[in-house]
TrEMBL record:
Transmembrane stretches, start-end: 27-52, 58-81, 88-107, 113-129, 136-155, 161-188
Pfam families: ABC_cobalt
InterPro entries, alphabetized: ABC_thiamin-permease_prd (IPR017195)
Annotated protein name in UniProt: Substrate-specific component YkoE of thiamin-regulated ECF transporter for HydroxyMethylPyrimidine
Superkingdom: Bacteria
Keyword Ribonucleoprotein among record annotations: no
Swiss-Prot/TrEMBL keywords: Membrane, Transmembrane, Transmembrane helix
Lineage of producing organism: Bacteria, Bacillati, Actinomycetota, Actinomycetes, Micrococcales
């Protein structure tokens, strides 16, 4: 085989980089997202919890309608980074930041972040990290909400509550996860992409029509 022939055939035999492999820019942006969402959590720990308490007083279990913002990190991470582990990474980091800045739930905040991130992660995995439309975002929010609901059965003692409370709480959490985490997370991703901040990501190139 001539040298020219070898050079022509070499690229075809070399393994292509996996689209699932994390780049340095992925790590940096995921970290920035985690910190930013963690700061949002600090605000929501006050405003969101006040809303949660008011709704729960109105109808026990209906407070779950406020939980969606606490789930948004995993959705944003999955939609923007589009790599395995991104939803878990961002949600867990955000929860850690919230805890370090004085969350009233202390270390339980991190436990929640891990489980909520896994809930969203499983939805993106279900679609093989290939679909990132508003429907998938809403499902990721629901997945995170259901995971949080299951954790609270044991972490918060909700398992001792009646069936009516648990059903109302599950439905309220799921609606909130779909809307406040899923749809709002999708809209935030598109808004960020429109500014050009995500041009190095597929999420940004899709919105701006870049190749």
């Amino acid at each position: 085989m001539s040298q020219d022939t070898a050079l022509k055939t070499a690229p075809a035999t070399q393994a292509q980089p996996s689209r699932f492999k994390w780049r340095v820019i992925d790590i940096v942006i995921a970290a920035v997202l985690g910190v930013a969402v963690g700061l949002l959590f600090v605000f929501w720990n006050v405003a969101g919890y006040a809303w949660f308490s008011a709704m729960d007083a109105l109808t026990p279990g209906f407070g779950g309608i406020a939980v969606g913002i606490w789930l948004i990190g995993g959705v944003l991470g999955g939609l923007i980074i589009r790599k395995p582990g991104a939803a878990l990474f961002v949600e867990t980091l955000a929860a850690t930041v919230s805890m370090l800045l004085g969350s009233q739930w202390s270390i339980e905040t991190v436990y929640s972040g891990i489980i909520q991130g896994l809930g969203a992660e499983l939805i993106f995995l279900l679609f093989l990290y290939r679909r990132f439309n508003v429907g998938v975002a809403a499902l990721a929010g629901i997945g995170s909400a259901v995971a949080a609901w299951v954790l609270e059965l044991f972490l918060s003692g909700n398992i001792e509550m009646g069936a009516a409370f648990l059903t109302i709480y599950l439905v309220a959490c799921s609606i909130s996860g779909a809307v406040l985490a899923g749809v709002v997370g999708w809209l935030l991703t598109r808004a960020l992409a429109a500014t050009g901040a995500l041009n190095r990501f597929a999420a940004g190139r899709e919105v701006r029509g870049l190749s």
